[in-house]
Batch of 2 targets.
Target 1
Amino acid sequence: MKKRRRSLEPTWTYAYEIVPPQAEERLGTIKTLLAHEHWDAQRGARTWVGRVVLEQRVTHILVVSDGPEQDREVNRRLEAALRELEVGFSITAPLAVVEDSTPASATELPGGVGA
């Protein structure tokens, strides 16, 4: 079995939390902004992607980025768009995520072969 090398560079994740939760129809501008920023990051060979997650008690905007900085231009644009919607929001601290690209075998997974 060929082993893949573990990525040494972490990606970072953080979330904007919007309370009270918002209807999907209100977030069209936010979704467009997130898609545009993702496209810009890809063009620049960077990592940045944001996704809206709707829940009953809170709406999340989950962000995965190549760095922990939360004072980038994208953050300022996103926060301005949220203020324009007149919603309350907070932002979580960034969390490093180190990707392990080594695939698990079926015997290592719960309920897998040999379990």
Target 2
Amino acid sequence: MLLEVVPAVMRTLVMHMRRMHAGSLSVGQFRCLVFLHHHSGSSLSELADHLGLGLPAVSRLIDGLLARGLVQRTSHPADRRRLVLALSGPGRAVLEAVRRAAQKQLAASLEALSVEERGAVMRAMDILRSLFGPRERAAWRGRRTRRESSCGR
């Protein structure tokens, strides 16, 4: 059931994001900003791995975000050949505005539920967060650390 519900929720959020922020951000750009918010200093390869896209596609996404001043690209402090990505101040502001709009839309959708149903949804989200949230982030950090050490970084 989770495999059916999560995509439906995401489609609804994406539809509202596009309507409310037409032309502001593509879904791919939004996902880039969210990733960089949580993983500042990541490389293009790490971002591509997370998004499940090839380097050329992610490079184009980042180029668009760089041109708009939403992302910064700098040299790694220990290895000047390696470039690292981070959100800029305007990037954080845009991400927060889009996130607030999405949360507002979700809240409006959930208002149709009874208090008990909303409580059940919140409990289910807490359970899913405990299963997938911290463990997934820790696993990602572990993959990143292993990749860097295996490349001599």
